[in-house]
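Hi X.,

You mentioned you wanted examples for the new student's onboarding notes, showing what a folding record looks like when two proteins sit in one file. Here is a clean example. The first protein comes first, with its sequence line followed by its structure tokens.
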Amino acid sequence: MYPARPDEPDYALLNDPDSKSHNRYGLPIDKAAEGDSLHGQSLNINGDGGVGANPNRYKQHGFYFNADNCIACHACEAACSEKNDNPAHIAFRSVGFVEGGTYPAYQRLNISMACNHCDNPVCLKGCPTRAYTKFAEYGAVLQDPDICFGCGYCTWVCPYNAPQLDPVKGQVSKCNMCVDRLEVGLKPACVSACLGKALDFGVVENIPERRHQAKTEIPGFPRTDITHPNIRFQQTRTTQREMVRVDSTAVKYHREDNQGSFRPVVDAKHGFDREWNLGRLLGSHENAHIIFTLAVQAVMGAFALLVLGRLAGVSPVASFHGTPAYLPLLLLMLAMMGLGLFKLNMHLGKPHRFYRGFYNLRLSPVSREIAGVSAFFAGLAGYSLFALFDGVFAVTMQSLFTLLALLGTGIGGYYMYRLYRIPARPFWDHWHTGAAFVGTALSLGALLLAMTALAYDELTSDLGSVLAWSVASGLALEGLGLLAHARDVSGQESEGAASFYEQSTSYGKSYWLRNGLLLAAWVLAIALALAGAANPWAFMLLALVALTSSVIGRALFYVLVIPTTMPGAFFWKNRGFVEHAREVGLADMPQLGVAYERHHRFNLAELFETLRSTSLQEKVAQLKCIISG
């Protein structure tokens, strides 16, 4: 454990003689009752089997931040990073600020924030590898980077930007509440280092000495209803009515005079000119998710049309099973599934640990999505295999694999949608996400069938009409979802409205191009469905327009989302500066706290170069370097 010095100053010592029984959310502060089997267990910190003597060891602890005293000296950041041996681009605690007014009535409010060790830790529920645990000891939410495989989903669901995804190591780590210091009666390192006594720590709801407020919110702090964070604030100075962020996020905070609280609203800091930004749009970090979702949804849609259409007695679809295009379609679907899963797996920080994605089926929508999609892939593979054979046994096995694939479609498709319903990302947290996913399955799935049939000259007018109606239905569903989404999100008092503002300005031309292509594809699909014709050029044009619309739309979906994170500074924790630093090479200067995403370097070129090595030792060593990133 942490070696406490005999001359530790009083301000570094834990001191909570009394505590309340419940917090303001009605939850008990005691995390383990007397006589509970958890009492007396060691946290095994660094292999030490000792048990701390803190009388409040099993009570929920939390941070206390006095915004009136913070001078943004960043001593808390430095102490935290030094204790945890963090590189320059990772900070478990960071200091940002909001500002308001103009000279001479300018105001600045600093905010120092780390993990809030919440009562409802959504990071724990979302993590597919079960890398998170909420301990009865101090109520600490601890994360094990060695278990993490670097999907980053916890960084999506956390409203406070507490989990940090290291782009170099490809794993997440976060504040551990300095439990090793707590075990020997010391406050966390950041608290002990604070120069202005702005930070304090103790049993939650206890107000430190010479403090008189215990607020749950201050300007710039995200909503608390998602996780019930264990942090309390004091902020007595009257602020300006509007406090703005100085980072690139188009959000500011407006004070409600009747309540005294602040709500996030749009800050039109980027102007109102429409731009393309195609390079940034299509060069997104989330391209793997774009390929995965579009490929999987298209294949699931094609399979559902192929199987359910036959079961429903839709004769053009049933007849397709006996054509020369049938088996090539199944092979193409398998190839698309393989590509999507490969791209998603290689997007992980630790691709070789992919199997850990099944660890948290009880809680994580990511684990359930992985299980569902895997079941669909297995069912599709079995279905395709037994399609090569005749006989009762082959038909029976194909039926069983059909059921497995349909089950996988239902589970995988549903949780593919549910994992994006994230309260901390309001732009995604809307039913249009599900409409877009189902619409894509209907439209791209039908077009996949049509293009395969067309390649083998099997696209009849009847089949073309059925598939065109499917395409039109999918596009209509997606379009209705987009209209509802635009109406609802643009009027929100949240980061979702800021995302809509960015969509209409920074990506405005790309946004309207997608909308125009979507409408054009729908009109063309309706025309083909009504005409009952199988014009190959018209179907190829429809496929091109619909696919382009889908790619741009899915790219917008990922690049526009603005999470409910803490405000940054001009350079530190500013997404705009991070992108700029990587583009122009400033990220080569480690003191700027920006790093390139080096864990994605695993590629075929490096693999072939490795295999050309002259010695076995060199091959093994280089392969280890490539895999570890």
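Then the second protein repeats the pattern, sequence line and then tokens:
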Amino acid sequence: MRCFAASILWCIFAFAQAPDVKPDDKCSIEGTVLNSATGEPVKKARVTLAPAGEHMDAYAATTDASGHFLIDEVDAGRFSLIVSRSGYTQPVSSHGGPKSSSVLTLEKGQKMKEIVIKLAPEGVISGRILDADGDPLPDVNIECMSIEYTRGKRQLVTSHRTNANELGEFRLPRLAAGKYIIRATYYDEIPLQERPGRAAGAGQAAKERYVTTYYPSTMNPTNASPIEVSPSAQIGGITITLMRTRTFSIKGHVNSGSEQRSRHSRVVLWQLQPRVPMGAEVDPQGRFKFDGVAPGSYVLFGGDEHTGARMPLEVRDENIEGIELSFQSDGEILVRAIIEGEGDLKHAPREFSLTSRTSGESGTCQPQDDSPCKFTDHGWDGPHDVLPVGLPVDYYVKSARLGEQDVLDTGFEFTAGVTGVLTFVLNPNSGQVEGSVTNAKEEPVVGVKVTLIPDAGHQSPTRYKTTDTDQTGHFIIKGVAPGEYKLYAWEEIEEGAYEDPDFMKPHESDGQAVSIKERAHENVQLKLIPAESAAGEKPAH
């Protein structure tokens, strides 16, 4: 039988003891934090018991010189056990991503001892940047990126960044074990050279510049070579020779409605892959120009404090001229929440998040004194989601109405000129589902991920739920909206992969169907999906 499969390594025999019940019903946990690479004790590590979705106080302790900790006088309940120490990260799963914190259920009077927690020492990647002649290139922006799921799409997400020094050297410290993509971007202002060639109508020469380059030497992120970092690894000798290519110019005019607004306008060109911005000055006549634009897909943004415009652009093999950016009033969405049934407005969320399904760009707003809060159009086309943050554990989102339309599942287009009030209806009568997970030997499995996936017609981000099994293989998921779902238990799964329909399609038969009604309390027994069944690398979008 395996010992603890998430970020904490448990000695199972410690949990087989009967609870030591005292009259005051208080609980305690006690154990040791170790270095996963050397086995040595880790002192000054912070061990925290955070209530898992309940309105309870958190408990914490710091390890001594022998790595020992004790947290006592704890009320019974369900907790996340989180351990942190500068210079260390949580252990990682086989796919390279960080493992989630442990879930721990404490019964009244229960005493847990001999818990072993292993922290992984951080790793380092270092190297240098060279120009096309093999000489060191200073002041290059270096990004260390991991491949993660964001709203069901695999994307490159920057976790660390730095700049190359005057010798072209860079160092990326404090890396958790895992796989990383390294890319280098040189924000030069002067073209390398001018080359005769086809340029847009005006017959101008094309210019050559350094472009964003992925290790070892490619402009295409799908051809980049991942660098695998193990705990405490010191990986050096990473050399990136920046690539260069023909670049072009973009010229246009801002039509903001007045000369004064034009003088205060800003214009930004965002490359979509990699996501790199360029800025341009707007002259008093509203004219702007971008030089050194590499071929690729872009979005051109313009705006001032109150108005804005955007335009998709494809740069191929010629300059682009004659662009007219006509400003419109910014879109503005007011967000509020109402509680139905026996709920109380004091349980309304104090923050809402807005996220673009296209770009992943996000923002938040905080209502004050029960007044609506406001989102202003931030410029990305495509559907957007607004979600309540910090919803009480027994509440669910019943609907999200923008005018007459329920946009909870579909999202909504948030563009210039769009205005309205987005009203969330929250209900305190959510359902819950609990159960246990066993492996092929009918043994309970500790610390594995359980996911609740809604049916195809109701895939609002609010309906996806996840948790880990506790030290007995038990799980519980609260705050479930009424509807049809499937439950899955994964030995290993990349965080967020369960929101990807392509990833989930081969696993349809691995799930356990469950129907949830208001105030329902369902009990389900799950079989573990082995790690090898959920494995498989896919490129980032």
